[in-house]
Amino acid sequence: METDGRVRSPKPKKIHSKRGTPPRADLLLRLHLESNPEALCLVRATVERATEVVHFPEDDSRAVVRSVDEALANVIRHAYKDRRGLPIEVTCRRLWDGRDTERPRGLEIVLVDSGMAVDPKKLKGRPLDEVRPGGLGIHFMKQSMDVVEFSRKKGKNFLRMVKYLAPSKPEEKQEGA
Amino acid sequence: MRKVLLGEIKEKRTPKVFLNLQNVRYVDSSGIATLVEGLKASRDQGSRMILFGLSRSVREVMELSRLQKIFEIYDTEEQAVSS
Fold first, then answer.
1. Which ipTM score applies to this complex?
2. CA-based angle A36:A8:A29, to the nearest 5?
3. In this predicted structure, what is the pLDDT of residue A17?
4. Partners of residue B19 on adjacent β-strands
5. In this structure, how many other beta carbons lie within 10 angstroms of the beta carbon of residue A55?
6. Residue A13: is its pLDDT beyond 60?
7. How many Å apart are CA B33 and CA B37, to the nearest integer?
8. Measured between CB atoms, does A142 come within 8 Å of chain B?
């Protein structure tokens, strides 16, 4: 696994900033993987660390890790048809609310692969009242994340997922003030 | 795991199959699919597949799949064995 993705802090790279406003997203890590199932556990561990940087609670952290794992498994299984050694890029960015410079707004994860185009019909998931194996990965991602978007550009599949931090409670804000 | 599980249920026809998941820290949709396959096989055989020792993470995935009430799940081995 090649990575330039050590968790970077605290100097964010400005992506969408205007003069006088804080950056809206900064790169936390970028992983260049190959389509090998062995990479899944490494990515899970790495993404879990990224969720800690954003201060997600444990259950939200597990939700993000689960979604990335399912998405990667789908890329390997469906887009690349279980062929090994093909490229996958995983990018994690910390999102900021323009009004709040202390607390990130959430985490954006983008997966890019060069595999087969995704069939939109398969992105809907399946009814859960059917007790049968398979078809649960998409459902897990949609249930666990706030945004799940697929697109295809220039022969590549892009999957963008976002998880927002729950608003902090008043007492937490007071403690941090 | 799939091979062992289905072997116990289909080939050995074990009437009660217990799955101790205490050391399972993570399960994905493929793992759930295997458990569902085992459950269906056990129903076909008229046997029982019983799970115990689920971590919070595994329970969450069961709930996401809405399978927590479909499987027989117990907290401890004692409860599972005496069921």
1. 0.81
2. 25
3. 44
4. B51
5. 12
6. no
7. 6
8. no
